[in-house]
Every structure is written in structure tokens, then in C-alpha cells.
Fold these 2 entries.
Entry 1:
Amino acid sequence: MTSGGEIGETKEKLETPMPEKYIVNLSTEERKYLHQLTHKGKYPARRFKRAQILLLSDEGHADETIARMLHVGESTVHRTRQKCVDGGVEFALSEQPRPGGKRKLDGRAEAMLIATACSDAPTGQKRWTMQMLAARLVELQLVDSISDETVRRVLEKTTSSLG
């Protein structure tokens, strides 16, 4: 083979392991709480994994080892440790709100969209298209602009049929 390397050749890992700067030391109550969380009840998968990460961290396992054991990324383990040290167990287990785009349509505009979609199609048309509905919302000055995909998603939430 040419300079591309041999098949089966291993390459050195370019990344350096994350520093073990965040040491998790759980109290007896915290450890008991996490054990209960991982053995009883139904919890969201992320919360469950984070509890497992904290328990294994408390036992002294390295990030890489925990990541392999739980089939998660090392950065997940590192961030969970960091959150625990910075804000406590509950903070490390909790899900922070995720930023999302501002809604294009408020309740009034959604109601108008649905009413328009359920009304008779414009003259010469068999049915409303997503593009025509989007144009109608702009025409009614309910929004400055809106994509036909946004219109489709809003209508998808309803049980109405357009045809």
C-alpha cells in the first residue's frame, strides 16, 4: 500500500483524556438515594444513567472506564461529575431546559390556520396546499413569514383532515 497506511494499522489516540479534576464524594444518604433510584421505580433514561455515573464515580472509577461500562461518552461522564461537584446530586441528575426557537404561531394564529384548512379551498383549487395556507396566514397579517413545513407541523398536531 501507499502512504495511506496498512490495513489493521492502529493509530495513536490524538485526544488526551479529560482531567479527573471533579472528584465525586457522596454522603451515605446520597448513595442510598441513588441506589434506590437505580433499583426501583421508573425514571427517565438520562436520569437513570446519571445516577449510575455518580455511583461509579463515587467508587473511584475513571471517566473512560465508566463510559465503557455504561455505553456513554466520556464527556457525559465528565459533565455529570462536574455538575455534581458544582451543584450537588439533584443538580447533576436533573435535565436543564433546552433552548428552542420561539413559536411562530400563537394559539389564535393556530386556531385561524386550522379553521382555514378546514374551510372550502379557494376557487379553482381542489384543496388547500401547505403553501397556500402559509400565504394566507401572511395575508391575514398573523405572521410576517412562515414556511409550509411549519404549517404542516402545526396541522399534523390536529386530527383534522385537509381533504
Note: Residues 28-93 form one domain.
Entry 2:
Amino acid sequence: MEGPNPASGSEEEMVERAGRTFWGYLGCELIRRDARETVVELDVEERHMNLIGMMHGGVHTALLDSAMGLAAMAARPDEDVVTSSLNIHFTAPALAGRVRATATVVHMSGRMVTAEGRLYTADGKLSSMATASFRVIERKS
């Protein structure tokens, strides 16, 4: 990604820039991002469903990747990070309604950040969980 780190600047500026990307297309909403945890929510609509009426696995994955990526960016605010691997487990279906993704950084090394994320249904049931590694890359100017 070229230009300034999307995690830099104000939270409002970051959300405004993100709204023009895949994040905005999905309909993600940043609830909270701090040094400890990132929380993202999504109102699950028909367009997010698979053919049997559950939230599509790709939406689970995109939402968790986004939340974990924001957590990784918060941990390395002066650098850029990109997903290098992601592993996901689906534990229960998510149906229409609001879902919440939480993400935390669990490990950092020189050029890598490892995060974990969990996606919960509106009634608090764990729907999926993931881990991801993010590569710290050279900032493009």
C-alpha cells in the first residue's frame, strides 16, 4: 500500500479512508481500537450470506483479517503490515443480525506480528476464531 499508514492520523481519518476500500464495501464498523484490543462490528445482511442462509465463510475471514490487521497496525504504528498467513476455525453459524469481531496481538518479533481474533454472534456465541501472522514491510513513500 502506498502513502501514509492507514493507522496513522486521527481515528476519524482512518475510518473515512477505510470506507472507500473493501472494508467499506463489506460494511464494517470500527467500535474500538486501543493498545489492548480492536473491536469491529458488522450488520449481517442478505449480501453477506451463503446459499443456505448463514454468513459466508469469506465474510468471517475478511472481518477477522481486518480486525486483526488493525490490531497489528496499532502495535506497529510507524510501520506498515500485511497479512502473510491466516488460519480460521468455524464453530457456529452466524445468521442475520449484528456480529462482533475482537482482535488482540499475542506476539511480536522484529518483522512479524501475530494476532488472534474471535467473531461472536449477537447473542454472544463464538462463531469463528482465527490467528494470523502479519509481515512488517518497508513503508512506501
Note: The mean pLDDT is 90.
